Amino acid sequence: MTHMARNVLGGDLAVCGTDPLTGFLRNGCCDTDGRDAGVHTVCARVTAEFLEFSAAAGNDLSTPRPEYGFAGLAPGDRWCLCASRWADALAAGVAPPVVLEATHARTLEWVDLDDLKAHAAR
């Protein structure tokens, strides 16, 4: 990375997860660039409820897709989610916990910081 991305708290963007390796750029960070139409900027610790919600919305994150090098997520895994999908999950009452230090500042274009803080991973 030639620049230091910022998180929603204004600091340097921390690593979200490397096992499984996450991020649109597959660098473990919820960084984004112009190719990332989904804006995968929210570092979340996924829950069973969120995984069910996401599958019902047409994005099955639990099923392994070896052709994409994707093992499938299990509750507790950290993953970079699309900002709009997290906002949808918030509205539906199933928003997973967020790792604020690893959530990209661009998320604030979709979600209020207070809502993120209310769902901060403990």
Largest sheet: number of strands, sense, barrel closure: 2 strands, antiparallel
> For the residues shown, what is the average pLDDT?
94
SS field, number of helical segments: 3
**What's the count of strands?**
2
Q: Show unreliable segments.
A: none
Mind telling me the C-alpha Rg?
13 Å
Write the layout of secondary structure elements.
Blueprint: E1 40-45, H1 48-56, E2 78-82, H2 83-92, H3 113-118
Antiparallel strand pairs: 1-2
Keywords:
alpha+beta, 9% strand, 122 residues, globular, 3 helices
Describe the fold and architecture:
- The protein is of the alpha+beta class.
- Helices cover 20% and strands 9% of the residues.
- It is built from three helices and two strands; from the N terminus they run E-H-E-H-H.
- It has helices at 48-56, 83-92, 113-118, and strands at residues 40-45, 78-82.
- A two-stranded antiparallel ribbon has the order 1-2.
- The protein is globular and about 35 Å long.
- The model has no long low-confidence stretch (mean pLDDT 94).
Summary of the model, kept short:
It is built from 3 helices and 2 strands. The mean pLDDT is 94. The chain has helices at 48-56, 83-92, 113-118, and strands at 40-45, 78-82.
